[in-house]
Amino acid sequence: MGGWRRIILPIVRVVLVAAIAVALVKIAFFPDASAESTPAEASASIEEPVVTAQVSSLENALTVPASVRADTAVDAKATLQGTVSELTVTVGQKVAAGERIGAVRQETPVDPVTRVAPDGTETVVPQKPKVVAEAIVAPAAGTISALSVIQKQDVAVGDVVATITPDAFVVQGSLKPKDLYRLSSIPGEASVSLKGGPGEFTCTSLRIATPAASGDGSAANGADPSAGAAGGDGASTALTCRVPVEVRVFSGLTGALTIQAGSAENVVTLPTTAVKGNADSGSVWVQNAEGGAEERPVKLGITDGVQIQIVEGIAEGDTVYEFVPGTDVTDPESTGCALQPDGTEVCEDGLVP
């Protein structure tokens, strides 16, 4: 027993320590070749996303931000050269459309007549001047906000006699130039939703108004001279329509103007991201036999801003690239928010108050 402790046990300890040392040296300096890893190789390739042309229905409902303002003031002008002989209104007075507010009198001298008596005596007889008078009428119902002339003042044709502020309101929407392509024809009316105002209503006499200063300093076509600023992009393009008299509104209310500019049933459509161009004609990209992108011209119809009608060039079931090659899939103009018909904005992170 004493020999085991003195001889055998020390030998076993030395062998174990030596084995452990050899194993550590092998691991540190002589790794197993099978454990060596080779550089990673890509096992998958990036593929461009594709979409399939589908048959669906489109409704071209264009919604733009809008606000309420008082209708543009109009001028009552002289239609005859002469002297103001009558003014029947004062500033602040209410007038009806077509109501007489004054008159202009024009006198034209008439040459005298020479009369010869039986005895040969000549007598020059003066003649009364030729007198013409024309009424000045209010071009619209409203309130007299200014009088530009006084009685017995000489005026020329086209001179402003009075300014009338109509007792009416209009809704003015800010329109981006590119949206004009969606309005191939202008309907006569649009729907309006106002924040904090009445329920949705229909406005009439819808038209595009491009403000431009006229010779008398007023806005052309009855447009608000500040309409261009509302657009925010310097294009000075605006939509206006009249608020019905039975709808109670106030200047400054904001909301949205929605124009139903056409629809199409059971037509071939693609996402607008897949099409280069958004009016009349454009291009899409299909995969050719070699696997590359091949451009194909298409004829375009209406769009709702998300989907666009393909009139010619692509059939139902055809596969095209979802994004136009070489373009950024993110819209630099996008704020991540979408304007709703009730005038609110819904963004990626929720509702904007």
Automatic annotation (TrEMBL):
One GO MF term attached to the UniProt entry: efflux transmembrane transporter activity
Compositional bias annotation for Low complexity: 214-228
Keyword Transmembrane: yes
Transmembrane segments: 7-29
Cellular component terms per the entry's GO annotation: efflux pump complex
Pfam families given in the database record: RND-MFP_C
Keywords: Membrane, Transmembrane, Transmembrane helix
Domain Multidrug resistance protein MdtA-like C-terminal permuted SH3: 266-320
InterPro entries: MdtA-like_C
Region named Disordered: 214-233
Tagged with keyword Membrane: yes
Name used for this protein in its record: HlyD family secretion protein
Species per Swiss-Prot/TrEMBL record: Okibacterium fritillariae
